[in-house]
Design brief:
alpha/beta, Rossmann fold, six-stranded mixed sheet
């Protein structure tokens, strides 16, 4: 898939409270129906910690079920389509991703046990991804899909279960921007002009969809060392 700042990062095994909570979430996923392939969304605002969580869960699930991971960042629209209506919060929310490709090239073939595409577009280099598809997975395999806007109506029916990663903007914005270098006061401020397109688009999503009410599990990831699993069959308070 197209490289990102986090795709080359291998998180250390979780320890302490984080290990306890993620073990509970892993058990809940493992106990989902094992007679068919499952696709699980990991949703949240930018900087919530979705990709790292997906990497952690993939590692913890691997001894129990075949597991793969993908990110919807590999399914961006071309630049011209993303910015056709300007560089606004509305266009960020409405025009960033190719929902049809996520459905027909990623999720549906994975669920059918057919070859599937991990990515179709490299947004960093603004070019199509020319890579062979992933082989079909076994019947009890799990696919973790992380990204933003995953509970929007165009995608919501794709998931067998979902995780909403809850983090306030005051934490997620500086955390997310730190992936790209040192963060100054403006970069850390959710209300700053430099963050307006992205924070504004995510506020539109929260208002439109209220994803916390749609998720199977809600993980408060504000404190990375001590997350809290708020809902789900194996709550860890």
């Amino acid at each position: 898939m197209p490289p990102t700042h986090l795709d080359s990062f291998v998180p250390p095994p979780p320890v302490g409270r984080r290990a306890e909570v993620l073990a509970g979430l892993t058990r809940a996923i493992v106990e989902q129906e094992s007679s068919r392939r499952l696709v699980i969304a990991i949703d949240g605002v930018d900087g919530a910690g979705k990709t790292v969580l997906a990497l952690e869960l993939a590692d913890m699930l691997a001894p129990h079920r075949e597991v793969s991971r993908a990110s919807i960042d590999g399914f961006h629209h071309h630049r011209a389509q993303r910015y056709a209506r300007g560089r606004t919060a509305e266009s960020f929310y409405r025009d960033s991703y190719d929902h049809g490709a996520i459905r027909t090239l990623l999720v549906e073939p994975f669920r059918a046990g057919a070859p599937w595409r991990r990515a179709v577009y490299d947004v960093q280099r603004e070019m199509a991804v020319e890579a062979p598809p992933e082989p079909g997975s076994g019947r009890s395999a799990v696919l973790l899909v992380d990204g933003i806007f995953l509970h929007r109506p165009e995608l919501d029916d794709l998931w067998d279960a979902s995780i909403w990663v809850e983090v306030p903007f005051e934490v997620s914005v500086p955390r997310g921007n730190a992936r790209f270098g040192e963060v100054d006061a403006l970069g850390a401020d959710p209300a700053s002009e430099g963050n307006a397109r992205y924070v504004g688009g995510q506020r539109l999503y929260l208002a439109d969809v209220d994803p916390v009410t749609r998720a199977t599990w809600v993980l408060d990831n504000t404190d990375l060392a001590a997350p809290v699993l708020l809902t789900g069959p194996l709550d860890v308070g």
